[in-house]
Structure formats: structure tokens, C-alpha cells
Amino acid sequence: MVRIYLDRLALSPLLVVWALTLFVLTSACSPALNWREVRPAQADGLTALFPCKPDAHERVVPWPGLPAGATMHMLSCQTEAGTWALSYLTLPDVALLSPAMHELTLSMRRNLGAASQMAGSGAPLSEQDLGPISVPGMTPTPQAHGWRFQAQRPDGLGRPLDMDIRTWHFSHGMTVFQASVWRPADAVKAQTSEDVAQAFFNGLQFPR
Prior knowledge:
β8 and β9 form a beta hairpin. By secondary structure, the protein is of the alpha+beta class. The protein is globular, with a radius of gyration of 16 Å. The protein is built from five helices and nine strands; from the N terminus they run ααβββββαββββαα. It has helices spanning 2-8, 15-25, 97-119, 185-190, 196-202, and strands at 36-38, 48-50, 55-63, 66-79, 82-90, 126-132, 145-154, 160-172, 175-184. The strands form two sheets. Strands 3-4-5-9-8-7-6 form a seven-stranded antiparallel β-sheet, with helices on both faces.
């Protein structure tokens, strides 16, 4: 089932972000929260806090303005509370930075729309601009924003599953980042303690 979903998503520009996340979401392993500091490779010194041990991947993906594509790095892991992901790529031209931040949002919309179609529900994608965000030490830019999406994806049996996705888009130097938390909507509604998604975002910082 998972292999079929990955093949269908192969034409999406940010396929590595969605495809790997979809694979992790359908994984059977769901450890409890166990926060640890992670320093991703080639990420301009970024430090992140993950509630599980992330797997690292990289892949060349199609990217606007780069005929040969771009190398996308991704870290992701899953717990009972959801899936946690960080993806990033470094660009060769400062003129590509602003369009890249916009492309992250567009690609998220496209990938979520494709997932909803595979779920076969026809439910519309809902999105909310959470406004400007700030990661300590990041490069200040008006394009640094947080987003919240509500969409559906197929569960392990191909049935529609309501999802709540929160994502931050930001940059440092010539590198653009997307940090995201993917959780079943029912789990978000049932949450009664600290917002674990916000704890993940608050753990992001660059050296000063």
C-alpha cells in the first residue's frame, strides 16, 4: 500500500517531504516522547529538539530556477503523538530565497491535496496563516511564517484519516527550512496538556 502512494507522488516537486513523511506516518513504530537535542548535518548550525530519534534522508528534487534540481535533506520520526519532520535545502543564488519560501507553502498545498485525492473523500483542504514566526538566530525575512493545515490522507487501510498539520518556514543565510508536525485531528482535539507541536518549534535555534 505504501509503495503505491510513493509512486503516485513521484511527480510532486517536494516529493521527498511528503513521501517520506507519509511513509513514517504509516510505520508501525510509535515510541513515547523522549526529547533529545539534534544537530542536523549541513543545516547552518541549527539545533532542533525532537521527541524521538529521527532518521536522516537526502534526495535531489526538482526545484524552480534550478535545472539540475536541489538536494533536499530531511529528518523525521514518529511517536504516539504524531510525526515530526525537518526538511531543508541550500540555494546557490540569493534571488532564489524569497521564491523558495513561497514554494514551500505551495508544495505543501499540492501534496496535501494529492493525499486527500488518494483518500477518496473529496474533503477540501483547510489552511490558516499563523503569521510571522521567529527562530532564534534565523535570517529575518517577511516570508518566515507559520501555517496550519487540515486535510485527509489514507490510513493504513486506505480509509480517509483527518490530519492536523502545522509547519514553520524560515531561512538562515542561503538555506531554507520547513519544520512540520503531522498529527491525527482527533489526537489534537484530545490533547489536554502542553502543546507538543509548539514545544518542537520552540526547540529550533541557530548559534549566535
